[in-house]
């Protein structure tokens, strides 16, 4: 490690606190990994590993300004066969429990309750999926949404591929 910070005694303060109130076009933190090594690695790794810390959040992002809260730009230029993902979210509940659980992979809330005029358009999820071969060869299959709901057979079970509800407007389609 080039820098190693041991702050095991810190209980309520921030271990690292960066204040950059005069920023104009710079960044408060920039990490640049330009290594050509093809081995697996994480450029940034955040680990919250104590299973007893039920209220801990591994990464919290709050954005008050700017038009995007989080921007992910994934570019992949290798030509070999691969599965490329812009974002991969893996949620596993690993403990065997007898209590009631609700497990959600992505919980998205989009709200605008302050508009007073104008035309306002809101999408909870907007998907634009484009696949075009550069040559007139091969086969393309484009899916805007691919969903699979798999339920177990122990106990009472129900598996729903999708539930859609649209209410509250003059015209509701769903």
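-> sequence recovered:
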């Amino acid at each position: 490690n080039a820098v190693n910070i041991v702050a095991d005694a810190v209980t309520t303060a921030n271990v690292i606190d960066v204040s950059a109130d005069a920023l104009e076009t710079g960044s408060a933190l920039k990490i640049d990994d330009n290594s050509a090594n093809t081995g697996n690695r994480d450029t940034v790794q955040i680990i919250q590993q104590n299973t007893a810390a039920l209220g801990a959040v591994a990464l919290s992002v709050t954005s008050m300004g700017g038009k995007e809260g989080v921007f992910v730009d994934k570019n992949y230029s290798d030509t070999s066969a691969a599965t490329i993902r812009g974002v991969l979210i893996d949620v596993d509940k690993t403990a065997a429990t007898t209590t009631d659980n609700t497990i959600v992979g992505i919980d998205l809330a989009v709200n605008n309750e302050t508009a007073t005029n104008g035309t306002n358009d809101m999408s909870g999820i907007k998907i634009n999926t484009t696949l075009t071969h550069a040559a007139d060869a091969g086969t393309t299959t484009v899916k805007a949404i691919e969903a699979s709901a798999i339920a177990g057979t122990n106990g009472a079970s129900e598996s729903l591929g999708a539930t859609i509800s649209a209410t509250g407007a003059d015209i509701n389609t769903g």
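The radius of gyration is 23 Å.
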